Amino acid sequence: MKRREFLHYTGLGLGAGLLSQIPIIGKAVPLEAPWYTIDVAKKKELADVALNAARSKGATYTDVRIGRYLNQFVITREDKVENVVNTESYGIGIRVLANGSWGFASTDQMDKDSIARAAATAVAIARENARLLTTPVQLAPQKGYGEVSWKTPIEKNAFDVPVKEKADLLLSVSDAAMKGGADYVGSFMFLVNEQKYFASSDGSYIDQDVHRIWPTFQITKIDKATGKFETRNALSSPRGMGYEYLIPRESDKIHGVTTLYRDRYDMLEDARQAGTQVGEKLKAKSVEPGKYDLVLDPSHLWLTIHESVGHPTELDRVLGYEANFAGTSFLTLDKWESKKFQFGSPLVNIVADKTQPGSLGAVGYDDEGVATQKWDLIKNGVLVNYQAIRDQAHIIGLKQSQGCCYSQSWSDVQFQRMANVSLQPGTAPLTPAELIKNVERGIFIAGDGSFSIDQQRYNFQFGGQLFYEIKNGQIVGMLKDVAYQSNTQEFWNSCKAIADKRDYRLGGSFFDGKGQPSQVSAVSHGSATARFNGVNVINTARKI
Amino acid sequence: MPILTKEAAQALLKKVLAYSKADECEVSIYSGDSGNVRYARNEVSTSGANSKSMLVVSSAFGKKLGTATINEFDDASLEKVVRRAEELARLAPENPEYMPILGPQQYGEGSGGYNKDTAAIDPAYRADAVAQSLTITKQNKLVAAGFLENTVASSAMMNSKGLFAYNSSTEINFSITVRSEDGTGSGYASKAYNNVKKLDAAKETSIAAQKASGSKGAKAIEPGKYTVILEPAASIVLIEQLVNNLDARSAEEGRSFLSKAGGKTKLGDKLMDDQVTIYSDPWHPDMPTSPYNNDGRPQEKITWIEKGVVKNMYYSRYWAQKDNVKAIPGPDAFIMEGGTASLEELIKSTEKGILVTRLWYIRPVDPQTLLFTGLTRDGTFYIENGVIKHPVKNFRFNESPVIMLNNVEALGIPERAVSGESNSSAILPPMKLRDFTFTSLSDAI
């Protein structure tokens, strides 16, 4: 079901501006539902039904994903709780190889007959498509792990926290922002629990329990005399954590022109400063277009990394599988084969890592039963690797998959999705303040804003939340109407300084979209504050 | 669950309502079957079949509302979902903006969006369509990446005040990007219909193939303000953003392009060229949509922009009551009027300009001016003295649909198009527009 359809038929979209970005599929459970999981022995029994049925119909490989996905949304607007929604989705997806071709079918009818029928349908689809095949699927070998399990290392299960506590926090956020001068505040908390069971004809039975959390808000202030308005979004980041993310710790705060957050988020404090800053944004100087040295905070830079490094290093894009929708990639195989394509300056080291604690993409095993790992994408500025899954590994000479296959739900087919892709901090001691000291004419940007990049990931444009003018090594005031445009390779080669590991932080998104039918994936990107010299800044102010 | 007839939906919803103990209860059902096939590098990559249904129950005690959904339909599950909705309602804080449910409404007859041939599509049909498409690209030494998806769906709602609404629909959606083998040319075509017989996958592939071959060797020209001809697949992604932002509450609260100082709005103001008229009509024969919206209000033919003047905004029932105006729901799709010229005639009448096949990665930059950024893609050509002279490299634009629709030179014959961003359909013409703002060049092909 498409997101628009779901919102249409349930009315969940009513009055929930921020919620309208969120795809929701599933059936609701009571607010204070007792926490439970499906018995692993039951899941194994059902998975074996699918594996056996597919084999009996002629599948040469089968994998089965049984998923129970829970979401919770708490949504507030100013002093009102607009909605509290719990959804639950439970079903099975079966992927097969038959006659060298992929087939997939899913069902939410969890009886053995329905599962066997779905397996047969998947084989029938594979056979139908095999007549259009010129190259049979070549699957990298994968050992079976037997019965194993993995769980996000959370300290406090957010689903166990009473709804009232969450609603009270969001209402306090509204109150703090309004007292700071905001006219409107929308906020929500979005919690995810993916209970995933994977089984394959390789002999793996993998049980995983994945948790994610995203608390956020948007504040608006209006100048009633002129009719102008500005917004300021939360500087939080969605994380692969439990509710402990919302229990602030002073040691996780980075104080400066605005306070920024490492592994714990002080939502109330951020709302207070946002309430003030949105007023400052209204009065800020409109930027003079031209070349600036940009100092980019991790709360902003994660999105630039995502778009300009994460996506073009996905091997399916390089090969053309996304050509009709998300596009291809300028990082063609010849650039990788040359082993000397200077993607960025020698300071630039970028890794893919599906094991990173606290990240959105952290799992023990991917959705085709491969143990997750960490590997280099860009080493000392040079392109050294891609992100690949089992049916692509042979193309770049890998003996096994890099373990970055994912599906948003049991009902969708899994395919190559981005690992956590992160810029490594500088090796020499350097703080953001020291970094700014060396900037003569620049802009410090915090928070993510507008983002757009072409279908081969060359030309991009990014906005942000907070723009501070730097003159002669000092922050001198706030700017507005700022966006920067660049070419990916030029941009990363203009990277002249990266703060050290003390400043390393994770940003990320719940909603990385890709594929047809389109699916979303949650992914994190880490970095320390970094400086990019001579980047083109445009002024986005217009009149209508 | 199979797609429900009107009678079957009515019987099911009546049974669910019988379990209700709430002050007010509203139930709705959605069920849909879809199939898809995706191809790239001139062969099938993934495909699947998907069947989903959902029963939604909203229960209210006073102004306390709870909603629960389920996809199991035995009696015990039906009662369970009603009890869950009631439990949620009891736990929920009172919402001062809660509006009592509607009584019976008058809807027009079914809008004709269901087609039995489309409902009968099977994997063999999809594979045959892809085979036709691939024959063309392989013969022309080009590389295809495409997607074909068919859906059949039904929806219905009923409430404890006697409201009942039903709709069924089918759709087939096809899109294709054809690239030259050396990766220096790319073309695109897309179509969506309710009736599968209207789709000609081979014809669309040929259009994309022609653009791919014609776009090889693109030349760079300086970014700046240009006269552009936007094909419907390009303009839809900007016009849909305009239609999506016609909300009355945002406008009156001061946070919309329709806001004016002091809580006033631009309703009744002329914001665009005389040639711009945009409306919605659930009964349009080429793009039928649901006769009711999600809270049971009847959908009607509504004119949103008439000769450049903002004629209507859409309202929630709460906000309409506050304003004491009619609660017009937002549209499911839109139709923009056009002219009589073909695309070829628009090109012929252009001294200097850029023909744009597709716009991509559209993101808001400034809600105050409805400024968006994005890029051209898959076939961008320079026009001089009425003919296409050569392909040009792609551009990034920063433009507002409001400014753009003030700069209309001419409109062509409207046709149904699909948004490459939202996957939604609309009917709109090719547009010839002056002073479209390109801000930088892209090396992407």
TrEMBL record, chain A:
Keywords: Hydrolase, Metalloprotease, Protease. Pfam families: PmbA_TldD_1st, PmbA_TldD_3rd. One of its GO terms (cellular component) is cytosol. Residues 289-537 form the Metalloprotease TldD/E C-terminal domain. One of its GO terms (molecular function) is metallopeptidase activity. InterPro entries: Metalloprtase-TldD/E_C, Metalloprtase-TldD/E_N, Peptidase_U62_metallo, TldD/PmbA_N, TldD/PmbA_sf. Gene3D superfamilies: PmbA/TldD superfamily. GO terms for biological process: proteolysis. Residues 63-126 form the Metalloprotease TldD/E N-terminal domain. Belongs to the peptidase U62 family. This is TldD/PmbA family protein. It comes from Chitinophaga varians.
From TrEMBL, chain B:
Residues 25-89 form the Metalloprotease TldD/E N-terminal domain. One of its GO terms (molecular function) is metallopeptidase activity. Gene3D superfamilies: PmbA/TldD superfamily. One of its GO terms (biological process) is proteolysis. InterPro entries: Metalloprtase-TldD/E_C, Metalloprtase-TldD/E_cen_dom, Metalloprtase-TldD/E_N, TldD/PmbA_N, TldD/PmbA_sf. It comes from the Bacteria. Residues 138-203 form the Metalloprotease TldD/E central domain. Residues 223-439 form the Metalloprotease TldD/E C-terminal domain. Belongs to the peptidase U62 family. This is TldD/PmbA family protein.
